[in-house]
């Protein structure tokens, strides 16, 4: 399968951002892509840097204008597209939602972000209700796609449950970056951790990973903070964590690369993690915390 990601910087104009995406989907298809993955919340600047009620007005229904635009692009180019919207499910209930459009433009499915951060510059709990559709891959014409979103990528449980449910690859649209006040050592430390955790999901589950991040400096609208420098570095790795292609931390990019879905079967024969899992001993994984006194 040929997979592609689109890494880009975002302007304040949602329509301009979407038009750029449509052009880049066409470019990816010209390079042979079967699947195109977009970054998290690709229509807008990252508005979660502050808690502002006005940003609720950015939300739209799943079957809103973004789905219509991406569906038309998917159908025109005969490519599966994974997009991202700020979903208005109901008044007072909003989600950070990935939408999956099949090659014929139909909605193959959607995934609502499960893990919601609440950190300086990433005040997502103010805007997003946690998802409730659990960790199930989306069936498409090119295979079973295990789609999660950003903060989900730090949790091994999410990746494992997707793999156990039959995901053939893991996909993480993201929006993560540096605090400009951090020094270069700290920035590299954070980036290395981000890449490493996702490569580990590939290795532990013997399936490829596609991780797509935005790029560029984004200030908050009121200039109350120093903003976020989104670090890009979107990448694809195989089921042994080998990076097949990676973007840099500054430039917009459209990359296409081949992945071998047959590798999963070969790896699971050689590295039988699924065979040797001790599911009888994992009951405590659903506890919030275990003190040493809980041991027998």
Radius of gyration: 19 Å
Q: Can you summarize the main beta sheet?
A: 6 strands, mixed
Percent helix = 10-25%
Integer average pLDDT? 95
Compact description:
This protein is of the alpha/beta class and 296 residues long. It has helices at 14-30, 65-77, 156-164, 184-205, 263-270, 273-276; strands spanning 2-7, 35-38, 80-90, 93-101, 107-112, 138-140, 143-147, 169-174, 177-178, 209-213, 215-218, 228-231, 235-237, 243-246, 253-258. The protein has one domain (2-294): Nitrilase/N-carbamoyl-D-aminoacid amidohydrolase.
List the helices and strands and how they pair.
Blueprint lengths: L1 E6 L6 H17 L4 E4 L26 H13 L2 E11 L2 E9 L5 E6 L25 E3 L2 E5 L8 H9 L4 E6 L2 E2 L5 H22 L3 E5 L1 E4 L9 E4 L3 E3 L5 E4 L6 E6 L4 H8 L2 H4 L20
Parallel strand pairs: 1-2, 2-3, 7-8, 8-10
Antiparallel strand pairs: 1-15, 3-4, 4-5, 6-7, 9-12, 10-13, 11-12, 13-14
């Amino acid at each position: 399968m040929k997979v592609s990601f689109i890494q880009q910087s975002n302007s304040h104009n949602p329509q301009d951002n979407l038009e750029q995406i449509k052009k880049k989907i066409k470019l990816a298809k010209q390079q042979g892509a079967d699947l195109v993955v977009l970054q998290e919340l690709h229509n807008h600047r990252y508005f979660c840097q502050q808690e502002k009620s006005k940003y609720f007005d950015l939300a739209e229904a799943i079957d809103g204008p973004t789905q219509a635009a991406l569906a038309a692009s998917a159908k025109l180019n005969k490519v599966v597209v994974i997009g991202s919207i700020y979903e208005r499910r109901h008044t007072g209930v909003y989600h950070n939602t990935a939408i999956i459009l099949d090659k014929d433009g139909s909605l193959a499915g959607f995934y609502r972000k499960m893990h919601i951060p609440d950190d300086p510059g990433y005040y997502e709990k103010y805007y997003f209700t946690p998802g409730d559709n659990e960790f199930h891959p989306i069936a498409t014409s090119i295979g079973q796609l295990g789609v999660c979103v950003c903060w989900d990528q730090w949790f091994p449980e999410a990746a494992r449950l997707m793999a156990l449910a039959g995901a053939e690859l893991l996909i993480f649209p993201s929006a993560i970056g540096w605090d400009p006040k951090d020094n270069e050592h700290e920035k590299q430390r954070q980036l290395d951790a981000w890449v490493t955790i996702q490569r580990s999901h590939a290795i532990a589950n013997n399936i490829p990973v596609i991780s797509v991040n935005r790029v560029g400096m984004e200030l908050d609208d009121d200039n109350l903070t120093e903003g976020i420098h989104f670090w890009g570095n979107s990448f694809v790795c195989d089921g042994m964590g080998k990076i097949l292609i990676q973007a840099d931390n500054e430039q917009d990019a459209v990359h296409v690369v081949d992945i071998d879905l047959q590798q999963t079967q070969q790896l699971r024969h050689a590295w039988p993690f699924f065979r040797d899992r001790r599911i009888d001993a994992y009951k405590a994984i659903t506890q919030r915390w275990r003190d040493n006194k809980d041991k027998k």
